[in-house]
Amino acid sequence: VVQRIPLVAAIYGGTKRFLSVVKEQPADVQRVVLIPFPTPEMRAVGFVTRVMEDTGSGRRIAVVYVPTSPNPTSGYIELVPLDQCTETG
């Protein structure tokens, strides 16, 4: 019945898809780490969004989102070797 109402169907469908994505937590991703950014001596808080493998070297690379302040919805995407990511509690 909800799917037949035009505006409600769009909101309901989008919300349902969003909640299904948020509810699932894939292994080895979606965690908070410290990475060397913006310089090797400094550390920044970031969120691992994906882990990939470099085909040339075989190293595992973390795709890390580093939010900026005062607006955390904008930020940087950094590709960091997984061995340089420091896990947080």
Q: Which features does this protein show?
A:
alpha+beta; five-stranded antiparallel beta sheet; 5 strands
Number of helices, counting only DSSP H or I runs of 4 residues or more: 1
- Multimeric organization: single chain
- Termini, distance in Å? 44 Å
The computed structural class is alpha+beta
Cα-atom Rg, whole angstroms?
18 Å
Largest β-sheet summary: 5 strands, antiparallel
Which regions have little confidence, pLDDT < 50, spanning 5+ residues? none
Strand residue percentage = 35-45%
Strand count: 5
Strand order, sheet with most strands: 4-3-2-1-5
Descriptive account of the structure:
The chain is an alpha+beta fold and 89 residues long. 20% of the residues lie in helices and 38% in strands. The chain is built from one helix and five strands. It has a five-stranded antiparallel sheet with strand order 4-3-2-1-5, with no helix packed on it. A hairpin with a 6-residue loop joins β1 and β2 (43-53). The longest helix has 18 residues, at 6-23. The radius of gyration is 18 Å and the shape is elongated. The protein starts with 5 loop residues before the first helix and ends with a strand. The mean pLDDT is 83.
Question: Topology of this protein?
Answer:
Blueprint: H1 6-23, E1 31-36, E2 43-53, E3 60-67, E4 75-81, E5 86-87
Antiparallel strand pairs: 1-2, 1-5, 2-3, 3-4
Task: Provide a brief overview of the structure.
Helices cover 20% and strands 38% of the residues.
